[in-house]
Design a protein that fits this description.
96 residues; 0% strand
């Protein structure tokens, strides 16, 4: 499940960068907005690196606690929701 969450994060950061370049979205996370303003490559590397480390530890915790499993499920739902938001602006930008 952690890999799926990370891959959705990859799609999220890539689509965010694409949307920012088109000027059709704004980054809602102030930390990521700062990194995107500095350099989009840094934003992508930062996002994917932090996610990988945190997901690794959360996945390891899943062996010991049910709370970690619930947290992973929650993160998966959040990532899916964010991708749906991206699909929405993509649809609006290209088809409306």
């Amino acid at each position: 499940m952690a890999l799926m969450i990370w891959l959705l994060g990859l799609a999220d950061v890539w689509l965010t960068n694409y949307g920012l370049q088109l000027g059709v979205i704004n980054e809602g996370n102030p930390v990521m907005a700062y990194f995107f303003q500095l350099n989009p490559t840094w934003a992508i590397v930062f996002s994917l690196s932090i996610s990988a480390v945190l997901l690794y530890f959360l996945q390891r915790l899943c062996l010991h606690t049910m709370l970690a499993k619930k947290a992973l499920r929650g993160l998966l739902l959040v990532r899916i929701f964010v991708i749906v938001l991206h699909l929405n602006w993509l649809y609006q930008h290209y088809y409306l």
